[in-house]
Design goal:
heterotrimer, A: alpha/beta, Rossmann fold, four-stranded parallel sheet, two-stranded antiparallel ribbon, 6 helices, B: Cytochrome-c3 Hydrogenase, chain B, three-stranded antiparallel sheet, 48% helix, 10% strand
């Protein structure tokens, strides 16, 4: 017996299965996330190892890496973000279409890491909202995959109305991100 | 149609209908980066292109400037090893051990032969790991993704070996001032021997895939060439310089860490183009394997650390029983060991070239000035000259064959 | 191939430069001489074209700041290497922080271009004659030169880090 995916709660009958739209779409989205690898430094090399054959990220649905923000769901920021790079990161985030998730991989992206210096942004959450933080310097590929699984859980349990809610809009305003 | 003056480093391949005029009278400005799938690292290149032909290129770097040199002025010596990891992060052990050797030169410590041979094995493994990244990525940029997938598996095995020695995969912090914290475990030797038996065959497979492949050769031959004089003027070192024809290798010129005991060749190219850089790196991997074999077979017995009580942690049993050991332990861990005053420049042959450390100490607990001579930073200056006049796709290949690692570029 | 050692090199240099050497020392196997900034370009250029020395490789160029040496606070350090003779040389030149200028080496070595830009970025040393002297690693909008000793490592606008707990 092969388990393909966890079946969401619903009502089953002969030839049909009824569930909430949220769960069905969440299920589909979570197993086909297209990540944008924003790899800047050492964590980027660990990401390359994660994409490799040993720790294969493609098993989790992230087969197609998208370097164009217009076609990506998940922004994986891997590596140190310097202040010079900050506006570039913000622009890439702005270009992504909703719904989008952000995963901050590595200590430098989460909080500046060991580089408490004049030129390094102390955490990307000073400029964009982050969903999952993966600590480590660099995190092992297993940790990056764990982060992706947590993103998948967030995606599965997200309400379809979340992106239009007032709370979400207020949060984006606090980051000075313009919403249409 | 306007006439433009194109200064090109290569004679332009003639195509039908070619003249010195622009195609539509329009020169497009193309922004390559900082986030771009083909630039392996974050640096920006604003290129002016006429169709596919590049007219000018202006690089901008600094997008990952982490202020290593200022950071080093705040940290005692054993804490600086962790930041040297992050210079050329594809081959961190070479950076670590280069820094440790600089300190040992300053304090005047002699290492036992066993330590030297252990260091050589680790540095050559790191060199192989770095060259595998560079060459597989040249393959990826020409469309051959298979080499990448297969060779990264071999890199995983190298990572496993690092883990046996120091516990980490990528940012290794390998070695201590005065040697190593523990001897090579039997597990490491077993893994190394098993890998040495299997790797050459797999590497030959990768070699057969690309080296004499008609499509690959047509792509990379004559892409981004540079002459030996220009390369020397631009401060090139490492495989990029050797591909241009100059056999300058710091391991041979200024031998360190008992490299004079080993027999190895220095592969040298002719044209300095992408194909030569690829072949030089392939051959260097083979030479590194030779060195590792020699080091493993002739490994001398002895201590894995030198007698440098000021910098090398004493054994834990002594720390708990003897007063001097406790004081040394405290001073080393808290970073209160006074460093002898003086200035020293030491360089090692990194995977990209001569990685130098210029250390000025005034007797305090941290360096007064530490400057890293980073090979990537110095040879990337020549990039505009190497690509102007060639096609856009050749420019991408030139960039990946130069093995520009952003961490080393910006420090 | 004439391999030189440091004594021969020093003898050769004293002969050709004589008075211009202000200070010299042997630092862990590398000869180090101090010269005046007005003569540095000529000296290096002569070292490069000299038939016997052939110092044709510029290994490194960096800056240094000694706030306590009044009148000679800022300095530029050059590392040269003769590949044929397998010998290295370090040259230093110091000048006052009130007048942070130094002639550029880009006419002699192409490699000096970005190295001088980095030194300008970190120390504020203006290289006269440099084709394109602007910041290279830091943001263009930065208004100070961070590697000078009076500036802290951390960003000065941080309010969340209290020195009370982080001592030094």
């Amino acid at each position: 017996m092969v388990n393909i995916a966890e079946q969401p709660e619903g009502f089953e009958g002969q030839g049909f299965f009824a569930t909430k739209l949220d769960s069905a779409i969440g299920l589909a989205r979570s197993y086909s996330l297209w990540p944008l690898p924003f790899a800047t430094s050492c964590c980027g090399i660990e990401f390359m190892a994660t994409m490799g054959a040993n720790y294969d990220l493609a098993r989790f649905g992230s087969e197609r890496l998208s370097f164009s923000p217009r076609q990506a769901d998940l922004l994986m920021v891997m590596g140190t973000i310097a202040k010079k790079m900050g506006p570039v990161l913000k622009q890439v985030y702005d270009q992504m279409a909703e719904p989008k998730w952000v995963m901050s991989v590595g200590a430098c992206a989460c909080s500046g890491g060991i580089f408490d210096t004049y030129s390094v942004l102390q955490g990307i959450d000073t400029i964009i909202p982050v969903d999952v933080y993966v600590p480590g310097c660099p995190p092992r590929p297993e940790q990056i995959i764990d982060g992706l699984i947590k993103i998948q859980e967030l995606v599965q349990n997200e309400s379809l109305r979340r992106r239009n809610s007032d709370e979400y809009k207020k949060m984006l305003e606090s980051y000075h991100i313009e919403t249409l | 149609m306007s006439e433009i003056e194109v200064k090109s480093a290569v004679p332009m391949t003639p195509y039908v209908g070619m003249s010195n005029e622009t195609i539509d009278g329009e020169i497009a400005t193309l922004n390559l980066g900082p986030t771009h799938p083909a630039t392996h690292g974050i640096f920006q290149n604003v290129m002016k292109v006429d169709g596919e032909r590049i007219i000018s290129s202006e690089p901008t770097i600094g997008y990952i400037h982490r202020a290593f040199e200022k950071l080093a002025e705040r940290r005692p010596f054993n804490q600086i090893t962790t930041i040297t990891d992050r210079l050329n992060y594809c081959s961190s052990p070479i950076n670590n051990l280069g820094w440790i050797m600089t300190v040992e030169k300053l304090i005047g410590a002699e290492m036992p032969k066993r330590v030297d041979y252990m260091r050589v094995i680790i540095m050559e493994l790191a060199r192989i790991a770095d060259h595998l990244v560079c060459n597989t990525v040249i393959g990826v940029d020409t469309g051959a993704l298979t080499g990448f997938t297969y060779m990264f598996q071999e890199r995983e095995k190298i990572y496993e070996m690092y883990e046996e020695v120091c516990g980490a995969r990528l940012t290794t912090n390998i070695g201590r001032i005065g040697g190593f914290e523990r001897d090579f475990s039997p597990a490491f030797i077993t893994k190394l021997k098993a890998w040495l038996k299997e790797f050459p065959a797999k590497f030959d497979e990768f070699d057969r895939l690309l080296t004499r492949n008609r499509i690959f050769m047509d792509r990379v031959i004559k892409a981004g060439p540079i002459t030996a004089e220009k390369a020397l003027g631009y401060g090139f070192t490492g495989p990029n310089l050797r591909a241009a024809g100059v056999d300058f290798d710091v391991r041979v010129m200024n031998p360190y860490c008992s490299y004079q005991d080993f027999e190895f060749d220095i592969p040298v190219g002719q044209e300095g183009d992408t194909y030569d850089r690829f072949i030089v790196r392939q051959e260097e991997i083979r030479q590194s394997l030779r060195i590792i074999h020699q080091a493993l077979d002739n490994m001398p017995a002895g201590n894995y650390f030198a007698d440098v009580p000021d910098f090398y942690l004493p054994p834990k049993a002594e720390v708990y029983s003897s007063m001097e050991a406790l004081i040394y332990h405290f001073k080393i861990v808290m970073g209160e060991t006074p460093i002898p005053a003086g200035e020293v420049y030491h360089s090692v042959e990194g995977a990209n070239g001569e990685l130098g450390f210029y250390l000025v100490s005034d007797g305090g607990r941290t360096p007064y000035r530490l400057h890293f001579r980073r090979p990537c930073f110095i040879y990337y200056q020549a990039y505009p000259e190497m690509v102007v006049g060639s096609m856009l796709s050749d420019a991408i290949l030139t960039m990946s064959s130069m093995n520009v690692i952003a961490g080393e570029l910006d420090a | 191939m004439a391999y030189l050692n440091n004594t021969e090199l020093l003898a050769h240099l004293s002969q050709s430069l004589g008075e211009k050497i202000l200070n010299q020392e042997d630092t862990f196997g590398m000869l180090c001489i101090e010269v005046n900034r007005n003569e540095i370009v000529d000296i290096i250029s002569n070292l490069k074209s000299d038939e016997n020395l052939k110092m044709q490789f510029l290994t490194d160029l960096c800056g240094i700041h000694y706030p306590d040496n009044k009148g000679k606070e800022l300095g530029v350090v050059y590392h040269l290497h003769s590949l044929e003779n397998n010998i290295r040389l370090r040259l230093k030149t110091f000048f006052s922080i009130e007048d942070p200028t130094c002639p550029t080496l880009t006419s002699v070595f192409d490699a000096a271009n970005w190295m001088e830009r980095e030194t300008f970025d970190f120390y504020g040393i203006q290289f006269q004659g440099h084709p394109d002297l602007r910041r290279i690693l830091n943001m263009d909008s930065m208004d100070y030169h961070p590697m000078r000793k009076e500036y802290a490592l951390e960003d000065e606008t941080r309010t969340d880090k209290s020195d009370k707990f982080f001592g030094r």
